[in-house]
Amino acid sequence: MTTDNIQQLIDRYFDGATTLAEEQMLYAYFASDDVDEAHLPLREMFRDMAAVSAPVSVSVSSTRSTSVHAPVPVGKPDAVRRIWSAAAAIAAFVVLIAGISVNAHAQKMAYLDALYKGSYMIVDGKRIDDIGAIHRHLDSTLAVADDIEQEALNQPDVQQAVVDLLNSYSDPEAQRAIQKALNQ
Hints:
The chain is mostly helical. The protein has 7 helices and 4 strands; from the N terminus they run αααββαββααα. A two-stranded antiparallel sheet has the order 1-2. β1 and β2 form a beta hairpin.
């Protein structure tokens, strides 16, 4: 085939007007080592397209009038399609889960906002109305309180005071009740 014939096939290919046999001829041409310099930018695209098309051997003549017999690379369109379908399904699943999670969080925040409408707190002399910010401050404060409690319980004086308190009761039931209250 001549360069003009190849260019016509390329133009028809991009217009969607080529037959399967013509496409196979293009694939074979671009798979050969005798591709015209003007067509080199399209080489990788046509090689990729050939990898996912049905295998056919086609004879193509280049601009130098040599004949090239190149088998078109064998692709596995069903396997490729399955891989893309699986990837699309996974992506859809991730988007669905993310959407559900965002929606659940928005519903929770709307519920809390309605429940505590008008609630506020003063932090460092500033009024905070945002329920999310209030919850963050409360969580932070509770975490600090838990740390202080754990530190206090690990002090030898506190531990001795607990032992003394438990020993001051002779009734085992009372000791268990006190122990339970301290563990909460």
